[in-house]
Structures are given as structure tokens and as C-alpha cells.
Amino acid sequence: MKDTDIKSGASSNHHSGRAPYIHKVGKPPKENLLKEISATVKETFFSDDPLRSLKDQPKSKKFFLGLQAIFPILSWAKDYSLTKFKGDLIAGLTIASLCIPQDIGYSKLAYLPPQYGLYTSFVPPLVYAFMGSSRDIAIGPVAVVSLLLGDLLQAEIDPKNAIAYRRLAFTATFFAGFTQFALGFFRLGFLVDFLSHAAIVGFMGGAAITIALQQLKGLFGIKEFTKKTDIVSVLRSVFTTAHHGWNWKTIVIGVSFLTFLLLAKYMGKRNEKYFWVPAIAPMISVVVSTFCVFITHANKDGVAIVNRIDKGINPPSLDEIHFTGEYVVKGFRIGCVAGIIALTEAIAIGRTFAAMKEYQLDGNKEMVALGTMNIVGSMTSCYVATGSFSRSAVNYMAGCHTAVSNIVMSIVVLLTLELITPLFKYTPNAILASIIIAAVVSLIDINAALLIWKIDKFDFLACLGAFFGVVFIGVEMGLLIAVGLSFFKILLQVMRPGTAILGKLPRTTVYRNVQQYPDATKIPGVLIVRVDSAIYFSNANYIKERILRWLTEEEEKLKENNLPTIQHLIVEMSPVTDIDTSGIHALEELFRTLQKRDIQLALANPGPIVIDKLHESKFADVVGESNIFLTVADAVHTFSPRISDEA
User: Fold this and answer.
1) pLDDT value of residue 121
2) pTM > 0.90: yes or no
3) Neighbours of 117 (CB within 10 A)
4) C-alpha distances out from residue 428 to 71, 120, 291, Å
């Protein structure tokens, strides 16, 4: 009833010289079944009301607004100015200087030739600039997704079989984009939220350690190295080659420039005015180290170099994607996993910067944009692209205004592919390794892990489980552990919801948890229990048994102290948002058990959905309308008027 909340204020008011008015719990009007289903579907899949901008608009405008919804660039392009372009130009050039050396390194994580990293920073950012709604996110290959993709691909095909490996990579990228697009188009973005923040922190931290350890091959100049990603295999591979496989010149180059990159990163972190220092440090490292190797011919002394990056823009690759045959299922499985991780990272980054600039980000539109760019990317020799946190942070601090910064970056990458890729021939692999290590250090978020420990110990266990799963078993298993622990926590909270005994706060008619408020007093002869979740088949029996256990424990305490026994049990149902048939059966069993013990059951403040189901099941008649109250205070006043009047 619409006025229930207004009238409820009277339920605890005291009138001079007479008992307070007790309002009955209202039964909501019966809704049409079709309308009820429609409202549920709308709230589940269209909670943001995506078509609200089209209401009461002429057909011509509806068409244009529809285009704007698909291509957000149309909505902000009309207000674009030279001032905004200056900011986007500077930001685009800055992130380009960061992405080019990173892309060459990240492609190695995916066991792909270096040009494929550059391809992935050319086409996908252009597609995203037209379809994405984030103004700050910088698109391209990222370390975690590159590692994950490489790990899953090389488990199916040896990277030495270059053509077959590349085809499976493009197939996986296509299905990663398809998965992302489908989640957004069918409004299923909420599924991504099942991967908890704690699990993501642990997974990212573990992946960062794994990536850094893998780079020891390039940093130490080791030629024979394990393909496994677990820490034991990697360290065994490193130390078994210590006496004959390490190259001292490579180590000097790698460690020197790694130190430089970490100092640059520290400088940028200490003072935001110097954000450009860590942004251009990788390019400076590449230029200087390449020049040094070229003039000293260090490559002849065992310093491994890039050797060759194919010149030219992305070749078409549609004909290389598997749409039939045995590799379709494998590509789909790998693509789904990589696509969801890429999606989770991009949405998290986009929301972070949207909150900082105070604008709204439509998660489902983002998924469609990311999916489209990866589908197009798979057809233009790209592998899975997503938002990069380090580049997006630089983009934000460099003063970007719109996605034009991604277009500027793409143009710079295009010029690099067309003009200067041969100059990277003498770039030492040790530099790429040091750039990757410096980039992934920021993925280890110790402060976030400590905060998780302080707030929720179970969340911290999920974080540790994901971290150690990645580090000691492998990336795929670590991801499964992260997802599994996230689901387990949800199941645990649903199956074992909280319950609490309530007491009356002094000088009020408010009833709260006696553990949270030690000065709250219990009412003689009355036990008040609050149930803190919906009551479903998965927890109904537990809730019933937990309430009876509370009752038994209280009666034992009363018996020890020779106090009056419990005569009334009030179940506070404010947090109970819904109840199913199993829940109602559990209440019926509770009612019968209490009857045998001469204890009256009462319900306080059931919500509209709950009270409707109680009436439909006739349980409201069983327990009695007079035993269903709007507030706990009303119930206590009815059962213990003397105590209530002392408030």
C-alpha cells in the first residue's frame, strides 16, 4: 500500500493518557502476472532503462538517438573543440610512446611475433573510439591477458608451429569478442560481477609475479627456458642454467634499464607533475639500448635482440579464423576465458576513471564496444585487446578529454608500422623484459590486500587462494580458483545467512542486535530474532534450526538464573526481501514446534512480497493476523505492555 510507510510513523507514537496506535501490516494489491513478470525482467536486464532517451521523440530523432547509443562519438563530436583536441593530442602522443615498446614485449608473452602487439594497438583503439563510452580508457594488449592467452594457446599448439598457432590465436580472439558482444547485447553484464574484487586482486597479483618471473629468461639471456608458468618450474629453469646459460652483458643491460624504469615510475608516483617521465621512459630505454647494441655489436656476444619486425599495416586474417573443425571448440573455450578477464579489467578501469571525472559509464554498451573491436581485430591480425590501467592512468593525467586520444595513438602506431619498425631490429630482448617487469609491478596491490584482510577475512582467503593458485599451479587454474572461491562465498552467504538476537535500546522504541549494542536490553518472556536474508530452499531449514537454537540457548540461560521462560518469539523480517515455498514450510514447522512448547510465534515488518506470499499460502491465517506486526515495538507492546510503556 502506498501510504503504509507514512502511516507506520504512528505505530510507535505515544498518545497522552492512552495506548499507542498499532497499525496493521498492509497487504499489497494483487498485480497482474504478466505485469509482474515484465517488471522482474525489466529490473533484471534493463535496470538502467536504456530506451528512456527515445520516449516521446519523433521518428527521425529516434533514429539519430539510436545511432548515438551505438556510436557515442556522434554525441560528443558536435561539441568538440580545439582546446579538447590539444589535450587529446598530447595524451595520445604520450600513451603512444608508452604503448609501442610495451606492445612489442606483450606479444612475446602471447608467443606471437612482435608486430602483432603493434597491430593490436592500431585497429581495436580506432573501433573503440567510435563505439566506446569511456573518455579515458586506453586500448591495446595488456600483460595479464597476453600471458593468459599465451598459456592457454601453447597448451594446445606448439608456438614453433607458427601458422597453426597464429590461426588459433585469431580464432580465440574472435570468440573473445563474440563472448563480450553477446554479454552486452543480451544485457548479461551482471555476470561479470560474480568475480569478486578480492579474487581479482589476488589473480592480478599472482599474474604479475608469474609475468615478472617469465621475463627472467630475457633479463638473464637464457636460451633454454620452461614453457610452464608455475613458480617452481620457472625458478628451476633459471637456476639450472646459472653456470652456463646466463649472459653477463644481457644482465647488465637488463638490470640497468630496469632500475631506470623503476626510478622513473617512482618519480611519477611521487609527483603527478612528472607523470610523463614513466610514460616516455620505456621509449627512451628502447632507443638508447638499441643504439648501444648497434654500435657495440653486443648481439655477436650473445645479447639476444628482436631481429625482425614486419613492416606494414595489419594484413587481413578472416580466412585464418577456424569456423569449422576441431579447433573451433578449443578457440571458443580459450576465447571465453580471455574475453571475460579482458572485460573485467576494462570495465573496472572505465568505471574508476568515470567516477573520477563524474560521468556515467554504461557497462553493457562497453561490452558491445569491446566485443566489436575484438571481432574486427581478429579479422585484422590482432589478438585480444582491452583497457590498460597503466596507459589509461597516463592518458588521464596527460589531460585527455575524449576517445580521440586513442585515435592519435593509433595513428602514431600506424606510422611506426609503416616507417620505423626496421629500426627495432637491434632492440635487446632484455629491454623488453625490463619494460614488462616495470609495467606489471603496479598490478601487485599490497594496500588493497591489507584492506581486504582488515575488512573481510574470508575475502582475504579468496584473494590468497587466487594468488597462490596462479603462482604455484598456473594461470588457468588460478583463474578457476578465483571464480570458484567467489561463487563459494556467494553460496555460503545464501546458505548460511546471518541471524541476530535483538534488544531494546534505552529510552527508545528501537530494537537492535545485542552484540552490536551491549546496552540493549532483552524483553522478559520475549525473544526477538532478526533474519538477515531472503528465505529460500537453500537456507530455509538452516534458519529454522538456527532460530530454535537461539531459543534453546536463551531458555538455558533463563533457567540457570531462575528467570521467567520465553512465551513469545518475534521474528523481525525487515531484511527478508523474499520467501519461497520451502521458506513458508520452514515457518510452518517452526510454528508447530513452538506451539508444542507453548510459545507464540509473531512476525514483524514482513515486506510486500513476503506478506503477499504468506497470505497466498494461508500461513498468515495459521499464525493469526493479530500476530503479524508492522514493527517489533508494536509486537512488544502487545505482548509486554509494561515494558513498552517504560520507553
Assistant:
1) 96
2) no
3) 30
4) 41, 22, 10
